[in-house]
Amino acid sequence: MTPQELRAFCLSFNAAVEDFPFSPEISVFKVQGKLFALSHLDARPLKVNLKCDPDDAIRLRGEHEGLVVPGWHMNKRHWNTVTADGGLPDQLVRELIEDSYDLVVAGLPRADRLRLDRP
């Protein structure tokens, strides 16, 4: 996955926005003000921090050693850092990004979730 593909995929979700609260180099993708993906898009290798169910996080780290690791500068129980530009199939990276978005949306207040469902 290229940096452009990563950015486009993250922004393809309903109400997703890109923000730069930490520095101009760090893209933070949010929904309703809540972070679901974080990446330094110019870094090599390309990595992205993603929210993950704690049990799935452990499983993924074991299955993809070195490519899925505990979230850098994040809560290690709920976040993974995923190497997105090699080693992992692009489809898996897309699924992990979508799972992260879905987890964040599920944690939003009901009124916010309902607003996301409207066309």
Features:
119 residues; alpha+beta; Aspartate Aminotransferase, domain 1; six-stranded antiparallel β-sheet; 4 helices; 37% helix; 25% strand
What does this structure look like?
The protein is built from 4 helices and 6 strands, in the order αββββαββαα. With 119 residues, it is of the alpha+beta class. The chain has one domain: Alpha-Beta Complex (Aspartate Aminotransferase, domain 1). It has a 6-stranded antiparallel sheet, covered by helices on one side. A hairpin with a 2-residue loop joins strand 2 and strand 3. The N and C termini lie far apart (29 Å). The mean pLDDT is 94.
Q: How many extended strands? A: 6
For the biggest sheet, the summary is: 6 strands, antiparallel
Number of helices: 4
Just give the CATH class. Alpha Beta
Query: What letter string, H or E per element, gives the SSE order?
Result: HEEEEHEEHH
| Rg (CA only) | 14 Å
Measured between the Cα atoms of the first and last residue, the distance is: 29 Å
Q: Provide the domain count.
A: 1
CATH architecture: Alpha-Beta Complex
Secondary-structure content class: alpha+beta
Amount of helix? 25-40%
Strand residue content: 25-35%
Low-confidence stretches: none
Shape: globular
Query: What fold name stands as the CATH topology?
Result: Aspartate Aminotransferase, domain 1
Q: What topology, given as strand order, has the largest sheet?
A: 1-2-3-4-6-5
Mean pLDDT reading: 94
